[in-house]
Every structure is written in structure tokens, then in C-alpha cells.
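Now for today's protein:

——
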Amino acid sequence: MITLTIDGTEVKVEKGTTVLEAARKAHIHIPTLCFLKDLNEIGACRICVVDAGARNLQASCVLEAQDGMVVKTNTPRVREARRTILELILSNHDKKCLSCVRSQNCELQKLSLELGIEDGEALGGERTHYEIDESSVSIVRDNNKCILCRRCVAACSKTQGCGVIGAVNRGFKTSIESPWELPINQTACIRCGQCIAACPVGALYTRNEIDRVWDMLADDSLYTVVQTAPAVRAALGEEFGMPMGTNVTGKMAAALRRLSFDKVFDTDFAADLTIMEEAVELVNRIKTGGVLPMITSCSPGWISYCEAYYPEFIPNLSSCKSPHEMLGAIVKSYYAEKMDIPVEKIRVVSIMPCTAKKYEAKRPELAANGYPDVDAVLTTRELARMIKTAGIDFARLPDEDFDSAFGESTGASVIFGTTGGVMEAALRTAYDVLTGESLEELDFHQVRGVKNIKEASIKIGDNTINVAVVHGTANAKELLETIKAGEKEYHFIEVMGCPGGCVTGGGQPIVPAQERIDVDPRIERAKALYSADAEKPLRKSHENPSIIKLYEEFLEEPNSYKAHHLLHTKYTQKSKYPALEK
């Protein structure tokens, strides 16, 4: 331990601690912009400068605390330096705050208020103007609002292992671009949205489908149903001032009903359905010598990564569609027949924590009956905006249930939203299928937590199943390389494209960098899902009565011909840079 003094307060910290971290221990706030804990600690923006006794002010996020150091964070010189830096950033920033999707959740806007910047046009001067890149169905890039913090670059490169955006040129001409300045849809972008989650401003944001959904709801000739992913319920409340990790399932269902959807369904039902198909597929592969390891296919960001970066593993992918696509297919077949509704009149809207789901819904192979399984995808943030636009007092809504047809689910389904959840749910069912016995201990703690790669050997009857769980595609790359090298052998692998799984998907509420220093959204939101699992009367997917009824009345059995037609798909190799191959 070492001791230093910050603004007259003695602080004891471990050697290797930065001055920024030490200040937080003393409850002293040092502003930041480019800083993102464990990801982007580069001292680029200089907003966090302090006086540590050197000739020049130093960036506290990269300045290591020293024993006996005396630091001042609030001198006139420090305050003036921060104001000047901020004014320079604002001088080349598109300051259309009222119309910006990040208004009131913008780190630049907040910092301007804190430092008393009242006139953003004070410095004037030349501004750089960029064309907005709207080529992607998931992500919009607006470099007019970019502050060159490089947080998106770090997320894309370090967390996801893609590196499809980076800094080019120097000085005033520096900008964040894709290779060869291609539109983002002409790159190997996997549309995960982690760049959006990392961005402190509105330079990256989700492709908006809100108006399209409003139009569906206003059209009386359409029958519009909505479904909500497991992870949404663990985060939506944050958009309405509720503590992180609050489970708002009942209020969410009530809000969706007030938005005038004809039916409010739960994607958790389809998660149970996915387990039925995926667990049986795994068992069949093990028994018949099929391609192993089998790798989950629920995460569209991961699927895009596999198709572009590791196409040799495409045969390993489960052929199961993701849960919301399965439910879309069932609504437009079984439900349409049962309710005598023309398929062409049905619209399925998915509320997802994921920006890559927008791309997934437009994949031509996901149209089992000649119509897209899912018609529109809204992120958690987009749903929050719709609720606010409708004037719904979300926090005070009474809890309501999902509609009965596809509203029943088990504990296994709700944990789909966190890393390790799909694996755990699948093992609960695979055990019963392989052994013919009922698994009593349902919690597989070996696959829980936020460790980058988790491994376990699970004894199921006479079989030992080697499994692995990985989240974030950069970690997936590491795991796949060990398999290619023959260093590891598994039967089943769960891959989630986003760190922590869907709970921190690119469409979830954005947590400012300063808050992430003290709280980990991956952990807090996952707690809500595990609690919901523990409280469910049924915790195995194959015990869901509505699932049993669906197979009895329509699908016959898991992996049947009809089930394969509606619930399974195939994937193909994709080019990283298709424009360069023309």
C-alpha cells in the first residue's frame, strides 16, 4: 500500500493504482471523457488532468499514484485547462442536442453543464462536416458528433475482436472510419452495438424503427403482436429511474398493452422451445456421431462473426433459430391457424436487448412461411422512448401478465439473457433426456459468472459432457483457436456475442463510463434473471405445459420434419469486405 494526498485528503491505495482511481476512493470526482474502465485508458482527451507537482498538468487516468504524491484536482489552472479542452472539443461538434438520441444521457452534455460551458459556439472557427453513414440496418454512424475518444475503437477491437473502425489521418483531419472508408455495411461489422454502448455521445446510435411500429399499431387492418426478450425485463426500468437490476416484467407487459399491441407475448416461451430443439439436437449429435462441438446459435452477432471470421465452424453451429425468430414462425403458422387470422395480416414486433437482431430479422432464410418470421425489432431503449412518448407512467404501472397463448415460461428460459444461461438451461433438459431421470440439482454454478471463458465437465448418466461458455467475440476467437489447435475438446459450447450476454447487449440502457467504475451491469442485471429463475415454479423447459401442448397439437416432437421447417435454419460463409470482391 502507498499513501498520497489528494486535495488535502490522505488516501491509502495499492501500488499500481491510478490517480483517477485513488481520487474515487477519497470520494473526489475527476471528470473523464475518453476513459472506459479496463477498456480505454489512454489519456487521449485530457479532460481528467490534475496538478501532481510536475511542470505540466497530467492525465489522471494513466498517472500512477506514488507514495507521498500530492495531487490537486480543483485549482484555477486545472479548471481552466479542462474548460479550454472542452471548448475545443465543442468547437468541432454538431451541437444539435435537442434532436440528439443521447440528449440527457450524453457525457459531453453533462460535462458542459458541470464545467459551466454556456456558449458552445464561443470559439467558432472551421468545422468538419461528414456524411452520416446509414448503410447498416442496425447502426448509424454520425462523425459530426464524434469527439475522437476512441472508446468505440477499443470496444470493436478489444472486446469483439473485429476492428472494423479506427482512427485515420492526423491533427484536425483525424476521424474514425472503417477500412478504406467503406460504409459500415460493407465491412465485417457484426452489428453487435458494443460501439454504441461505449460511445459517450451521439456519434453512434441504433437504427430507429419506432415510427414503423407506430404505423403498424395505427393500422386497424393489421394484427400486431409483440414479444419481449429475457434480458429486457432486467434493464428497462433503468430508463425510468429504477435501480439497475430491477425486474420489471409485469410493468413491461402492462406498458406494451397500453401501447395497443393486439397481443403481448413472452420470448421466454420461445426460449423454452429453443431448448427443446437444441437439447435434442445435441443429444442426437452425441448419439449418432454428429459434428461436435455443437455451438449455440441464439446470438446473431456471434453468428455474423462465425460466418465472416470462422466459417470452418459453421457446421458446428446449432441449426436452431434464435428464440424470437422461432416465436415469430409459430405465431405465423400455428397461432394464425388457431385464431383464423391471415398470415399476411400479422405483424410480429420483437423487443430485444440487441442491435444485431435488427439484421437477423431481415435475413431471407428466416421466413418459414414465405413471410419474415419477425417484422420489426425494437431495442430496450427504443421501447422506453415509445413508452415516454405515449405518456405512460411506467414506474407506477400495476403488474400484468403476458397473454396466455405464448406467455407461460420456466426458469430455464429467463436465464437465456445472461452468459451461461443457455448452457445451463440446455443441460437441465439434456440430463433428463439422456438419463430418463429427473435432475434434482438445477443450478450449474460452473457456467455462471463473468469469467471470459468458463469450462466444465458435466456427468450425465454414463456420459461426461465437456462444455464451455464464452462471451464477447474476442474471447470466442481465443476459444476457437484452441479448438483448431487440438488443445481442447468439447461437446457443447455457448457463445454470446456481447460481454456478459444479452444483459449488456448493444440495445440496452447505456451506462455512463463514470458509473461503470463502481458497478458492473453484467452482474447486476444477471442477478435479476437468476432471481426470477429461482422463483419460477417450473425450472426445466420440457416441463412447460404450453410447450408440451404445442408439440402435441402441432409440432409432434422436437426435431420433427415440421419443427425443422419452422424452427431451424442454416448459415453460410460471408465476405468480410464484399465491396472489394466486386
